[in-house]
Amino acid sequence: TCHTPEEDDITWTSAQSSEVLGSGKTLTIQVKEFGDAGQYTCHKGGKVLSRSLLLIHKKEDGIWSTDILKEQKESKNKIFLKCEAKNYSGRFTCWWLTAISTDLKFSVKSSRGFSDPQGVTCGAVTLSAERVRVDNRDYKKYTVECQEGS
């Protein structure tokens, strides 16, 4: 709810998107993922009237869960992490999307089992300058270069 005596011409935006999300004193948000959390602001004629902070924490099977990666809707399967190799040299690049912007650290590890002496080593995870838009929301794209051991 927009905490203001104003009644007309009120619009809402969020810190995640500068697009107008709704109008009127009350904004109803359909929460689908952690990226829906954040600051929502009501405006009138370009002037900020009030701000609301929506925090989300969910529990699944008795465990507090945090969805970090955004599903990439390019196929019927759920894809959160994509990797691609240009040839058979053992080098490949992985990337993923997230809306989370603060205090986020990633590490990439390989696991094939105890008997496999080969492994995968990856460089530092980097934030791409590219922003990806999915369902009217901007996501950050992270990439990492990896090499399979020989």
UniProtKB/TrEMBL annotation:
InterPro entries: FN3_sf (IPR036116), Ig-like_dom (IPR007110), Ig-like_dom_sf (IPR036179), Ig-like_fold (IPR013783), IL-12 (IPR050676), IL-12_beta_cen-dom (IPR019482). Keywords: Cytokine, Disulfide bond, Glycoprotein, Immunoglobulin domain, Signal. Signal peptide: none annotated. One of its GO terms (molecular function) is cytokine activity. Coiled coil: none annotated. The keyword Disulfide bond applies. GO terms for cellular component: extracellular space. Residues 1-42 form the Ig-like domain. PANTHER family: INTERLEUKIN-12 SUBUNIT BETA, INTERLEUKIN-12 SUBUNIT BETA-RELATED. This is Interleukin 12 subunit p40. The lineage of its organism: Eukaryota, Metazoa, Chordata, Craniata, Vertebrata.
